[in-house]
Amino acid sequence: MAARRLSSLLSRSLHLPSASASLGRSHGVARHINRFSTAAAVEELITPAVQVNHTKLLINGQFVDSASGKTFPTLDPRTGEVIANVAEGDLEDVNRAVAAARKAFDEGPWPKMSAYERSRIMLKFADLVEKHNDEIAALETWDNGKPYLQAAQAEVPTFVRLFRYYAGWADKIHGLTVPADGPHHVQTLHEPIGVAGQIIPWNFPLLMMAWKVGPALACGNTIVLKTAEQTPLTALYVANLFHEAGLPPGVLNIVSGFGPTAGAALASHMDVDKLAFTGSTETGQTVLQLAAKSNLKPVTLELGGKSPFIICEDADVDHAVELAHFALFFNQGQCCCAGSRTYVHERVYDEFVEKAKARAMRRVVGDPFKKGVEQGPQIDSEQFKKILRYIREGRDSSATLECGGDKIGSKGYFIQPTVFSNVKEDMSIAQDEIFGPVQCVFKFKDIGEVINRANNTRYGLAAGVFTKNIDTANTLTRGLRAGTVWINCYDIFDAGIPFGGYKMSGTGREKGIYSLNNYLQVKAVVTPLKNPAWI
Fold it and tell me: Which family does the record claim for this protein (predicted)?
């Protein structure tokens, strides 16, 4: 990802950038970081030195209150306390935002300006985000709970990279000239689809915004974006920078609010031409139904996963332990493509389990603004309770709890890194998307067996394979029913690599050239030729 791969963030030798000193004021910060096994994850917190200046809806280039005047609190997951109160959009606000986007598409300059001019605005926006990297990263960590290092050195730079990537595509989108059987000139036009409705999740607020907004703008569309109610702050911050870069009013509109109100209104709106959603499979089904029952708008879905991470008998166990640990515990385990089913060959299984347990017990949990912290809090009380419920179900099954299994401290949403061994496919922890720091380790005997077991799920988002044997890698790559297969690596998300799932992990692809198709219509234009020199 960007200049640094996310996997590099595993190294405990990494330090926060020197700029971090200006981003937080420490009130008696402890001299050492607590491990997950201590009584409290965070005794004294760092106060982020970043201002929350944008809490209103963005409609037609202006930050405005919701029509109802209602607000909702966005919380600091380290404490459960309120960061700010944000305007709560609902049906009337979605109607206003869609009307602004429609006018901007039908009458405004964005789809009519040259693709080169659109790309210049997107590049200027990327430069502004890069200039404000540290403030944006601090806001993302504060609202989401992810480690500041991850936000500042990986996610914000990747956000910038994605917009530069799509800015590069803007003036390279074109149709084809198609040979016909008779005297006709045939060409295809690739036209913007219109008003795009986009609904993003809370686990990677900035990156999911880039995955959707970037290609939609490059293709000349206008947008209504609904942010997750848990993490509305960074989208509003960067949207202000977009208008500073010269984005015309109404091209990008942002409605913060809740799924059953604002989300449902956007999904079912008759004047939205295209819908993109990232979130749970269950919510994705509802979104698809609403889109179908309204104006049959096309829908791109990036949904849940229960991804296998397969460690073969020839593995370097120490390396495999570290990579499998990263594949699961990255971002507090709150990753749709997390390697949440760790399959280990029986010849190295016992050694792997012992070392995986030891690695989890070394994982540093605490205030994500503190130097050296690998894992912050879960996003909110609902997720916190859900994860602990799955851990209890794992305890009550015949799985072996190797370490962890409980909350940390009395404040905030911190959970111990947890490892289960001897997991069986019929257990809830093996079937369901836990979305938390819970590693489930399975034993397998041969490649055919593990392919069948890995594919025995309703999901098909991603998979990981760890082997030195190219033949084994090729067999697994072609046998696994997943949208992405990482060989001896994991969570590599370069801008040009398409991402999406098989089965109930979604439809369509995001990122790369494939994502442009989501936001284009193809029109065939046929013209007769009279006395052509050639056909």
Answer: Belongs to the aldehyde dehydrogenase family.
